[in-house]
Amino acid sequence: MGAYEELRTYKSLFAFGVIQGPLVEFGCAEIKVVAGGFGYNSHLTLPDVDHVTNFALVAMNKGLAEPKGDIMLQLVELTSGPGMQCITPEKDSLWLAAGISIKALQVLDVLAVLALDPSSDPKFGLIAEATAIIPKGVDREKAFVVIELHLIAVVDPGHGLLTVTGQLTPRSYILSPSCSVTGGFCIAYSFEGSGHEGDWVLSIGGYHPSFQVPAHYPPTPPRLGISWVYDNELSITGEAYFAITPAACMGGGRLDAVFSTGRTKATFSAYTNFLMYFRPFHFQSEIGVSVYASTVIGWRWFSVEIQVEISAMLELHGPPIAGVAHLHFWFLEISVRFGPDSPGVPRLTTSQFLAMIKQAENDEEAARVEDHLFGIQRGEIANDQNLVKKDPVLEEHVVRASQLQLNIQSRFPILDAACNNKPAAIQNFDSIFISPMQIASPVTTSTLKVTVTETDTNNYPAFSCTPIIKKIPSMMWKKYEGDINPSSLGNSTNKTFAMGIMIEPEKSAPSNEGLAAYSVIKFSSESIFHPVPEIKSLETAQMTVFLDSQSSQNDEMTRQRVKQIFGDSQVGVAQQNVLDCWSLFKARYTGGGWQFASPKPSPASKATMPPDINAMLKDRFAQALPVILG
Questions:
Q1: Which residues contact 185 (CB under 8 A, 6 or more apart)?
Q2: How far does Cα 398 stand from its chain's mean position?
Q3: How far is CA 304 from CA 16, 263, 309, 341, in A?
Q4: Reading across the β-sheet that carries 405-414, which strands appear in turn?
Q5: Cα(290)–Cα(310) distance, rounded to whole angstroms?
Q6: How far apart are CA 206 and CA 252, in angstroms?
Q7: Helical ranges in 49-98 per DSSP H
Q8: Residues 59/74, Cβ–Cβ less than 8 Å
Q9: Do 253 and 239 meet the contact criterion of CB atoms below 8 Å apart?
Q10: Phi and psi dihedrals of 107, rounded to 5?
Q11: Cis amide prior to 320 (ω within 30 degrees)
């Protein structure tokens, strides 16, 4: 299936095909479907995790988009799927797709589609749908466990993002079809080019209610939960979550049960949440339980409802550990506080802050970590000694001087830098603060100095240096504003700082010889598309050679020219033989060097031939005699 479209300035084309099986069986798995597609001047829009089932390439592989008898209706499924356009024309855009459907262990069905967009803004996506039915061989409605998961993974090099999102569908359940299972997860990593280099997140079921989710994180996944209506009297609901980022770790859950029959009703609730920040270390948590029961005694106007409620809750935060305990029983309520109130985020010492930016657990480990990051960006020559480096700083490197480029990066933003006392041009970016140390004034001095010396002469070679500019999370470098909310540490924006310098040897001075500039490409290139000369085929039996007196006169002139060049004493028998052979060869095979047509040409046609060709050949041949004959 495919489509071809001619637009005003370009032409668009896409095609897609499916081979249905079973096709191949190996071990415990069986390949059921293989699919592929491509598009030229066409754009493939990847779905979000909520629309995987309706995504055209997935739906057609599953057989959900059955042929409707009209080819145009089938194309509509691809070009304008439910709620979104899957395939649209777009100039200079290209996409490739390949899909496969596998049944493994007789209980797991996996359908995956890999899509590639190798255009100027490349993207790579994996769309998958997995279904597990346990036990095997039973109907879906009678199974013990049915888990259906949608998954989307996208690599976006242009924006420096890797995201993986997954979500359970409403068709998932455990124990009974009335016990539905919901939830989702997300994984994201930001690398160079994203503006959030090094940031990452893993979330299953969402985040803590007090955590401020950064804007560049994927959409918050739904809580991992169950909803079970056991019968007309009992229902159970529950939810849970867990998440971890470079700044924080969090988790929690809740369970509710409701029993209702006749005049009696009872509920039970239990929940817990915790949120912990690493640098500086700070945590908050809460746990609670509640039981409620009510019943109606009497009849009509003489009835009365009796209610009993018991609940307990414990809130903790620290360090130092402090909190409050609440107890509620019927009409009695008690609250007990302990420890200091709202200690806030503790202030880090200088050594603790240095250990934090080095990502070390303690001062001893921080002392073993280098203060700067060293790297050879360009110019290193690979050999047996430097294939494996234990320590890139202490090991020797073999480099090519003309291409050498070194990177020296600091773990602390810099304001000034120099290499061999030659400063780098660093402009003023964002102000540098040290928020974890609770310093309100900006940093005024932060200098990176690099010295390169020659080991033999102790000379200082000439190097140029340029600053390395990066956008990094402002969590540690923003201004301290007093009573800071710990949850804001996870919602840091980016600040622009100079984090190091790139050094390379200075370019050699231009030559003073005054040579004219020329194009190296033109000088070193030669066209291979020369015109092929026309080759005329002549049959020997039909060739007639004509000799005339002019040929003999030319030969005699050649002999005289040789004598003039070399003298009478230099022209010996061997040289004379060469001249005689030349005359004989010319007369026998070339018709005098310029006559080889049949029948004999007329004087008019003979006059049109260039008369100087023979003379040119004879001159070159005569000049080559000393070399040929030694």
A1: 165, 166, 167, 202, 203, 204, 205, 221, 224
A2: 30
A3: 71, 11, 17, 44
A4: 372-378, 405-414, 494-505, 463-473
A5: 6
A6: 10
A7: 56-62, 71-79
A8: no
A9: yes
A10: -125, -15
A11: yes
Residue 624 CB: number of other CB atoms within 10 A?
Answer: 11
**Does pTM top 0.90 for this prediction?**
no
- Residue 628: phi, psi to the nearest 5? -65, -45
How far apart are the C-alpha atoms of 583 and 591, rounded to whole Å? 10
Torsion of CA 363, 365, 371, 377, to 10 degrees: -160
> Contact, 175 vs 166, CB < 8 A?
no
CB distance 33 to 99 below 8 Å: yes
C-alpha–C-alpha distance, residues 265 and 94, integer Å: 62
Q: 229-263 burial, b if ≥16 CB within 10 A, otherwise e?
A: eeeeeebbebbbbbbbbebbbbbbbbbbbbeeeee
Alpha-carbon distance of 307 to 293, in angstroms, equals 6
**In the 8-state DSSP scheme, what is residue 77?**
H
For the stretch 608-614, contacts whose Cβ atoms lie closer than 8 Å and that sit 24 or more positions apart, written own/partner, are: 614/554, 614/586
Structure tokens at 360: 């070390």
CB 438 within 8 A of CB 480: yes
Rounded to whole angstroms, how far apart are CA atoms 202 and 245? 7
Per-block mean pLDDT, blocks of 10 residues, the chain (630 long) = 80 81 75 83 79 70 49 57 66 83 80 82 85 82 86 85 89 87 90 73 91 84 90 90 90 93 90 86 90 85 83 88 87 83 69 76 76 78 58 70 81 84 76 80 84 72 81 74 52 72 78 70 73 55 45 62 58 60 62 46 43 55 56
DSSP letter, residue 138: S
Structural tokens at position 97: 């797709």
